[in-house]
């Protein structure tokens, strides 16, 4: 490398002599320390004592792992966690994709369709059993006293339902999985008659009168836990709000009531008065008010009147009212006796 500066110095001297012109009486000659066209030394062909890439030893392709697996191997060690599909590891003739030229779908080797979707190769029955065995030490036994659904509902009245979605797609998340549904029977809540009616008015169509179930569905929050907390918050607010008594509620009259109430109503007074006059006409001993109210005839008449007032007039309700009036006034017995006399 030291010959290159010397060559430049000599070429510079030659140029100076040429500019002198007529002073030169003899031809000039020069020499270089290194020729450009000369072949490189033998030591430059090998760097760091390594052969060229073409002369390196190539690896021979090995057989896939599926051909070396044993029949009784532990699959949990092959797929211990969730991972993408590996064709060299799964010893199954899996095919997926669009069939080419009316043939069969492509095989698993180099198949991108199998890599796109999630798989459950890490959740085989032996793997699940192993996980359950490991978690068994951290679990408690089911209480012996809770041997049926009625007892479970008695001790745990609130039921929360969630849904987990499993689908083949680029993401395992589903936005509908955040929806939370809370159900509870009003019978399990500590409510009096006023609080129960007010709660039913507040919830609207979320209450099922036939099954006595209150259903609250929440999906406003982005996560499931937030929706669960929000549902419990709504239930707490509804419970405390139903116990409040406003000043205008105590001033309501019978005409302002939303539904018919039998106790202390005009219908109850008229029925008791009618029954008492019937007893006096038949020269029967007088009966106290509590006995008359609890009599089966008065109870049947009460149910029919409440049904017509609150649910409306239907063919069944009118027929029920007719039969209750007959029993109350003893018209059915009188009609039967007159028929026997005519015969």
Task: Sum up the structure in keywords.
disordered N terminus; 4-stranded antiparallel beta sheet
Can you tell me about this structure?
The chain has twelve helices and four strands; from the N terminus they run αααααββαββαααααα. By secondary structure, it is mainly α. Strands 1-2-4-3 form a four-stranded antiparallel sheet. The longest helix has 19 residues. The chain is elongated and about 130 Å long. The N terminus is likely disordered.
Total E-strand runs: 4
Shape call: elongated
The spatial strand order of the largest sheet comes to 1-2-4-3
The helix/strand series, from N terminus to C terminus, equals HHHHHEEHEEHHHHHH
Outline the low-pLDDT stretches: 1-11
CA distance, first residue to last residue: 148 Å
Profile the largest sheet: 4 strands, antiparallel
Q: What oligomerization state is this entry in?
A: single chain
Strand content: under 5%
Architecture blueprint of SSEs:
Elements: H1 3-20, H2 75-78, H3 112-116, H4 125-135, H5 149-155, E1 159-161, E2 180-185, H6 193-203, E3 207-208, E4 213-218, H7 224-242, H8 266-281, H9 289-293, H10 296-311, H11 315-329, H12 331-342
What's the short version?
This protein is 41% helix and 5% strand.
């Amino acid at each position: 490398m030291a010959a290159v500066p010397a060559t430049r110095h000599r070429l510079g001297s030659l140029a100076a002599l040429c500019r002198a012109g007529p002073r030169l009486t003899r031809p000039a000659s020069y020499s270089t320390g290194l020729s450009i066209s000369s072949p490189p030394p033998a030591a430059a062909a090998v760097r760091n004592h390594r052969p060229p890439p073409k002369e390196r030893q190539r690896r021979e392709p090995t057989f896939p792992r599926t051909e070396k697996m044993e029949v009784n191997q532990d699959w949990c060690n092959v797929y211990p966690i969730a991972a993408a599909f590996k064709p060299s590891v799964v010893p199954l003739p899996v095919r997926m994709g669009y069939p080419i030229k009316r043939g069969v779908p492509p095989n698993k080797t180099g198949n991108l369709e199998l890599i796109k979707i999630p798989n459950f190769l890490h959740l085989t029955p032996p793997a699940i059993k192993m996980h359950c065995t490991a978690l068994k030490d951290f679990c408690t036994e089911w209480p012996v006293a809770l041997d049926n659904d009625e007892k479970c509902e008695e001790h745990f009245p609130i039921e929360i339902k969630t849904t987990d979605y499993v689908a083949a797609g680029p993401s395992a998340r589903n936005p509908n999985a955040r929806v939370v549904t809370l159900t509870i029977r009003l019978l399990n809540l500590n409510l009096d008659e006023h609080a129960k009616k007010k709660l039913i008015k507040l919830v609207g169509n979320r209450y099922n009168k036939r099954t006595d179930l209150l259903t609250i569905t929440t999906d406003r929050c982005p996560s499931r836990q937030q929706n669960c907390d929000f549902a419990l918050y709504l239930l707490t607010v509804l419970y405390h709000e139903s116990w409040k008594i406003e000043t205008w509620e105590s001033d309501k009259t019978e005409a302002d009531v939303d539904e018919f109430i039998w106790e202390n109503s005009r219908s109850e007074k008229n029925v008791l008065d009618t029954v008492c006059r019937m007893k006096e006409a038949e020269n029967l001993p007088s009966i106290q008010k509590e006995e008359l109210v609890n009599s089966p005839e008065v109870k049947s008449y009460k149910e029919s009147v409440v049904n017509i007032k609150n649910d409306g007039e239907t063919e069944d309700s009118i027929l029920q009212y007719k039969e209750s009036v007959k029993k109350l006034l003893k018209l059915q017995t009188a009609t039967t006796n007159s028929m026997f006399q005519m015969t």
